[in-house]
Amino acid sequence: MSVYPTSTSATAAANTKTVQLIADLRSDTVTTPTAEMREVIAAAAVGDDVLGDDGTLGLRSLLTCPPYSVIVDARSHIFNYEASAAAHHSQALLIPVSPDDGIRHLTVEAIARKAIVTDDVHHAPTKVICIENTLGGEVFPFDELVRIREFALSKNIKMHLDGARLWNASVATGISISKYCSQFDSVSLCLSKGLGAPIGSVLVSDAETIKRARHFRKVFGGGWRQAGLLAAAGIYVIKNHFPRLHIDHENARRLSEGLSALGFPASRPCETNMVWFEVKPGGISAEDLQARLAAVGVKVGGGRGFGECRWVVHHQVTSESVEKILLAVAKIVAK
After folding, report:
1. SS3 category, 92
2. Does the pTM exceed 0.85?
3. Strands of 186-190's sheet in order across
4. According to the model, what pLDDT value does residue 64 have?
5. What are the backbone dihedrals phi and psi of residue 69, each rounded to the nearest 5 degrees, phi first?
6. What is d(CA 145, CA 122) in angstroms, rounded to the nearest whole number?
């Protein structure tokens, strides 16, 4: 059973107490390897992937020579939370696009208005459209992906999918990973988020793009030597955690509904494993809620002040944990 200190500051050391961890909802990246996963890692065959001994960077690999631009969702991870890495590594102009009013996802119309398809020397022509699915836990409609793909093909624009949580989208819709991938020139799939491997992402594309990506990986100082250890963990979670992702979605919906009943209404649809809610109606700040829950063994984050909070469910948050979390929130509200 996991335990952790409720305070780590030096001044509070004397008052620090250890509590039993009920659940960690900060992200689905906080999971730890299961005993079975550790066993398959220990038994993995290893070879040097850089030297091609193991059979186990998409966006940059689709770009050739500047000037060029990349269409991204204004809310996307690649635009907001990657330290401007796309611009740094590719010298590309990132063009953020917001959904039209009343629509929660990008549309071909919104993208077409921002895409640069002219040869005017004053502009950087759009060469890639990058889509994130899921984004904020919400599933991108497949029919709209098809429409965007048709537009991209008509303008000779490549498409890249940030599919860090595509596994969740696939489970929520019943649409296979391969069918989603068919609409893109390259796809990145995370093995940590959602699935629970300790580390790793997979780039899916044609052979020539993968060859080019491996070259860029070396240019950027990357290399995966004894790849089998982490590959074994990735294979394990695809086989064992992917089929049970629907349980995470069910637990997230139960948590969202329970929070709403306690006075914290959902601020976004709970379609997969993310729970977004407003704290202001509950009369407590996000920081205060976080501190009070930490004191009883629930780690949360993803919110500031009286705004929106994000909690993320994963395979190590059980249905029993969800009920304990709701009970803890109920006690806080009652005070």
Report:
1. coil
2. yes
3. 93-97, 69-73, 126-132, 158-163, 186-190, 201-205
4. 67
5. -130, 160
6. 30
